[in-house]
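Task 17 of the worksheet. Students: predict the tertiary structure of the chain below and write it out as structure tokens. Keep your answer in the requested format; marks are given for formatting as well as content.
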Amino acid sequence: MASSISDNAPRALGTLGTLVVIAGLGTPVASADPLRLRADAYAFGNGSGGAAGLLSLQGRDKFTPWLDAEAQIWLGAGDGSYGDVLIIAANARDLKGRASIRVGRQIVVAGALRPMHLDGLDAHVRAPAGIDVEAFAGFPVIAQSGPRQFDWLVGGRVSRRIWGGRIGVGAMESRDHGALDTREIGVDGSWPVNKRIDVTGAVVLDTIRFGLAETRASAMWSTRKLRLELFGVQRTAAHLLPATSLFSVLGDVPAFRTGGAARWRAAPRLDVTATAGARIIDGEVAEDLSAGTRLRLNDSGTSAVGLELTREGGAGYAWTGARATGRYTFCPAWMASAEFELARPDDDRGRGKLWPWGLAAVTWRSESKWDAAMAVEASASPELRYRVDVLARLSRRWEAL
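Model answer:
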């Protein structure tokens, strides 16, 4: 049984959405320097006095261009939670692109299979005849590096170019305390029918419960000014992605969705989008509608404003919302962005008629070795009258011979 929008809404109002937005404000790491190290420190606080931190590290050098390393470390929070390592991995690759291996704590995404957070290895080999082979194995990540309890995970994927496109088959199995926990088989593919039509699809079978964990298919027709798409998507709760805003929480519930979408370039800098479809939740059919526009304020698109209206139906799930976004580059060193969402549930259950969410961020990119950014997230939810969170990022690059 899918949970209601009242239960889901608070999940969007935490740290994750702010981290995703501000992390995207970083500066690309150049590869021409002899030795390049980079550290990003994130500090997060809210109005209740809680605080948290995240440290991101990257390193590479030109003498061993086939090897690099990265780490993301959660430094803990003021609510008593301990720090932990989210990602720490070394990446080795063949410079001709024929093979690569990643060892350590990482997130593995293999075709249509669910994303997996594991301590182990993920290897890729590009074989002749357009065949790519991937294999991964390790231990599912446990919070605060707790005891393993005979947990392990293994899987792989094989894909091949065919009919001008690519098709892949993957499988994974995980154990919990030695007992079978998850076993999936996934098939995914994409094919260009001609210069204007592309078809993609994926099916994931849960072989323990003998049911579909995820199914998606789409057909897209596009020209220079117009893109039309027909789609169908079905996901179980295990395949839903983490929420990064209020809308992504309210709309991302286990359901089957189908419909059509269109994007029209009405002017050189103006895009108009629309989606009309239906979603089926617990056997009930409800509307799934949206319309939006995006105006680029310069030729590069680094400055833009947008507006989107959304309507999703369903007993206990129905809501209407508006979303406004803006991004402006004052100069090469300074950029500001903002997002605001306002959702109105059909049945508020006495927990507020309007649910607002907003995020504002500013970043400074210097020509020197320092970069900085800050974001403020504010919201109101059924559980909290208001909440304000602040996240700051400070980056430093080191170069050496």
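Marker's comment: The first strand starts at residue 35 and ends at 46. The radius of gyration is 23 Å.
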